[in-house]
Each structure stands twice: as structure tokens, then as C-alpha cells.
Amino acid sequence: MFSFLLLTITVFGQTKAVTIDTMIRRTNRMGLFSGNILVMDGGKVVYKNAIGFTNVSKKEPLIEDYRFHIGSIAKEFNAVGIMMLQEQGKLSIDDKVSKFFPELPAWANKVSIKNLLQYTSGIPDVKWKTVKGDADNIADLMKLQQLDFEPGTKYAYNNNNVFMQRRIIEKITGLPFNKFVEEKLLKPAGMSTAVIDPDDNTPLMAKSYTNEGKQGPLIYPITGWVAVTLDDFYKWEQALENFKLISPASTKILVTPFGPDKQCGLGGGTMDGNKLVFHKHDGSSVYYQALVVGSPLKGRTVILMTNNRQNNIFDIDNAIQNILDGKPYSQPKRSILADFQKQLDTLSGEQVLVFYKDLKAKHPNEYGFDSESTLNEIGYSLMNAKKLDDAIVVLEYNTTLFPTSGNVFDSLGEAYYNKGDKAKALLNYKRSLKLDPTNGAAKAIIAELGK
């Protein structure tokens, strides 16, 4: 009886691996994934693979030993570093930035370390077009006279929050940030292949590229970016899940964002007492994109790293999770934004909708028309380009397609808020909160607008 049961589990496990492999290879053949993948379940490897190419020439295939930039997930290292220093009594996350850098302008008296961790500081983003290094960015912050908003009242994801965390770590420890990461984080976590700020001479470093033949740079304007292999990425996730570096209490702070669908120090997650039961964090940079999804109670971890960003890693993860759970899965589809960004950038909101409907009629099964994220993604792209009226048209239509989603009304509320239309912003945030009572960010903004 025992032997039969063991055989059944083994065969079932093989079936899952084969199904995942079939899905991944099909996604690769469609030009929708180049990268490295690790799937753990029950604490065992279900699937591990490298598929695609190391750079834009497409001559050298990837192998599992390659390192990838992981975008915003690399911000976990400074966040964990901050909490380590709090546990050591060397700082409090309620401390203001001015405590460590009194030479900064008056804005530093208002911004706390917690604001930096939750991206609620109001500090404007890095001036990417002119900043060539850390010194340039410090000079810009020294000139800054006004925050974008009152700290703690609004969420705005940008890299100056991360930059200041790294500088605070340096100030307290007396170590360059990269040295701190190597000695206090990578080594204790058992990570032997990770590198910080790789360059063109770094061996086994995947280079990001587009399907149009453009290769992205490895060196970024501000420093402190950790690049990892699959094995080291998994070791880092295990260090977090097993509280090897920081306590459950500190971890809870780093997985609790300002509001739903917002990022925090570790992205987002769920704690049950002193146990981490879920952890999810994504990152993108140039043409890299990465995702880690951990379910510790299941012994399950999914890691995806790509050097050919197609904005579909969540779809790939959803397929993998369903396969692991023995459920039907959807084959990942193409991203409208990824395929047509240049064309969409030239269109008005109404023209975007015409384009969307025409594409849906001609290619109903090729793109993610059944997902709210498709138009939401386009809407945020328009918002980022300061085309607020066009973004509102697109996001308004998305609420008619997905009227039970609190997230789509939250996005529309944000667009109206950015435009300065407080009445319509309030209306949509209230709709969002009614559909999703856990939306803390909506509660905060409703309170602000109610004043």
C-alpha cells in the first residue's frame, strides 16, 4: 500500500513538471519568455530550467548559473538592512532623515524612515535624464525645497526612497552599502554567487534586450543593485521565510504596505502570528523583470527571472500555481502594452479604446482581454506620461468591463486625484473601498479628501 502511494505521488509530481515545462516552452516559442525559472513545492524541486538566450545576439543559450538583475526586488536588501539596524538599537524607523543628514533642506525634518520603506515620503523621483551617479543624486536632494506631498498621506513608488535608505545604512555602519550587503546579508544567507552592481566584465551575467534588437545597459545611475542566480535567490527567500536575518516582527513591518496593491520593503505578504504565510514581490529594470512568490506553509516558492521583459510574469506564475494545485490553467498571452507601446503613446484615450476593441475582434485569444490588468497597465502608462485625461478615459472603460473589482476603481480614483478633480476622486475611492474594505490607501485618501 505504501509503495503504491509513493508511486502515485511520484508520477503525479512528474506530470506537474511536464505540464509546467510544456507551458513554459510554448510561452518561449511565442517570444514571450527568455529567462530562468525555479519551482519548489513541498520543499522539493518540481521544475528548474533556463530557456532563451544570454543577450540580444541570441547566439548563446542561458544556463542555470546565469545572474539576472531583479529590479525592485533588490530593494529588499536595504529594507532588511534597515530593520537589522533597528533591532540592534542603532535607529528607529520613526526617526526622521534629518537625524542622519542634518545638512539636507527642511524637507528631511518631515520624512521618516518608515515613509521611505512604504514609499510615502513625498520625495520626488530620481532625475534619471541628468543623474549620472550617486553624487549627482545627492546634489539634487540638497537643492530640493519642496516635497511632492505631505509624508504619510500618499503613495508614490520611486527610487529616491531606496537611495536614502542605502545612505542611512552607510551613515550608521560606516561601511559602503555594497560592502554592508556582502558582509551582513549575502554571507549570512549563504549566497555565494550574487554580485552587486555588475558590469560588462562580470561573468555569467544575462543582458536584457527587446524583441526589436535593443540591448539594455548593466550599470545604473545610482548604485546598490544585487544581481542573483536562481540558487542564491532561493537562499535569500529562505532566509526571509525562516527569519535568519530579521525577526518576525521586523518582517511584518516589511510586508505591510501603505495600501492594497502597493509595494513595501519586501513587496507584500501575509503574517499569521510569527509565521510568514505568503510573500510576493516583483521587479523590473530596463528589459529585466523578476518575480518571487513564496508560500512557506506549503514549502512552495516560484522564482521567475527574465532578460526579455514581456510584462507577463504574473500570468506565468498564475499558470504555475494552478498546475501545482491541480487546476486548469491559462496559457500566458501577449501584452498589448509591450507589443504596441510606441503606437499607444501617440493615441488619445478614445483612440486607445478603438485600438483595443479592434485588436480584441481580430486576436481574441492572443492578448489578455479577460484580465483587468491589461487596460490598467495602459492607463498607468498614460498617467506616467502625464496624459491624465486619456488615462481617465481608458480607466473609466475598464470599470465597465470589471465592475466588481475594487482595484480598477482605485486606479481611476488615482487618475482623478492626480488631475486635481477631488469630487470624482472621492467618488471612485469610495466605490473601491466598498468593493474592497481592506483598501487602507483608499481609506486614507477618503479621509484626506473629506477634509
Automatic annotation (TrEMBL):
Pfam families: Beta-lactamase (PF00144), TPR_2 (PF07719). InterPro entries: AmpC-like, Beta-lactam-related, Beta-lactam/transpept-like, TPR-like_helical_dom_sf, TPR_2, TPR_rpt. GO terms for molecular function: hydrolase activity. Coiled coil: none annotated. TPR repeats lie at residues 406-439. The keyword Secreted does not apply. Keywords: Hydrolase, Repeat, TPR repeat. Residues 32-314 form the Beta-lactamase-related domain. Gene3D superfamilies: DD-peptidase/beta-lactamase superfamily (3.40.710.10), Tetratricopeptide repeat domain (1.25.40.10). This is Serine hydrolase. The lineage of its organism: Bacteria, Pseudomonadati, Bacteroidota, Sphingobacteriia, Sphingobacteriales.
